[in-house]
Design a protein that fits this description.
Layout: H1 2-15, E1 24-29, E2 33-39, E3 42-43, H2 80-89, H3 91-96, H4 105-113, H5 117-141, E4 145-150, H6 160-170, E5 180-183, H7 188-201
Parallel strand pairs: 1-4, 4-5
Antiparallel strand pairs: 1-2, 2-3
The protein binds zinc ion.
Length: 208
């Protein structure tokens, strides 16, 4: 997971939307929330050398359990696994409304796009939690851009506009650190290639 996010961050710098930037971040949505961080052109690996576990920033006091043993982590709300859990939690609500319960996040996406109130509410909450996480990342890492990668790339219409507006509001007192939010234009191959490069060279910078 962390290696995937680090590789994705490296790929953005070489081939993607981070070319020419000094500071950026990639969030990969999957079974968890991967976070790749580049500071001053270098992959940030933290003191442990294992990379930032920024998916475990605690962003809510709602009792959403995280795989790490805590509750309320970003990852507990902002991942495919979390969306599956939200579907289960809202079963009764759909049944009460006489609607079928979506079988998986893909169906949840279709329902939200079709105007289903419960599905739209789940994505509204997703956007709110994502904005909180991004606020926290902005005040710590100050990325110029944050890229979204992984499972929800094609679904950004359901969260990106609202998240962008909420982030702007949360950072209204510090607009100089407001990151631009972008969906990654890169496919998985780019990350795999970059991951191999990082693994071989141990660095993000090309040795000339
Ligand atoms: Zn956690």
């Amino acid at each position: 997971m962390q290696n995937d996010a680090a590789a994705a961050a490296a790929a953005e710098g070489w081939l993607g939307g981070a070319r020419g930037l000094r500071n950026w971040m990639v969030l990969t949505f999957g079974t968890g929330l991967g976070t790749g961080v580049v500071i001053d052109g270098e992959l940030f690996m933290g003191g442990s050398g294992l990379g930032p576990e920024a998916g475990h920033f605690i962003i809510t006091d709602r009792p959403y359990r995280c795989g790490c043993g805590n509750s309320g982590c970003a990852e507990a709300v902002l991942s495919g696994t979390a969306l599956r859990r939200r579907i289960v939690e809202n079963r009764a609500e759909w049944k009460r409304r006489g609607r079928a319960v979506p079988a998986d996040p893909e169906q949840l996406v279709l329902r939200a796009r079709a105007g289903d109130v419960v599905a739209k509410r789940i994505f509204a909450e997703f956007s709110e939690m994502l904005a909180r996480a991004i606020h926290n990342y902005a005040v710590v890492f100050s990325p110029q851009k944050i890229f979204f990668s992984g499972g929800l790339k094609g679904e950004s219409d359901l969260f990106l506009p609202r998240t962008t507006a909420l982030v702007a509001n949360l950072l209204k007192g510090r607009p100089e650190i407001e990151p631009k939010l972008e969906v990654s234009s890169l496919g998985r191959e780019a990350s795999v290639l970059s991951g191999a490069w990082v693994a071989c060279s141990g660095t993000l910078k090309k040795s000339e």
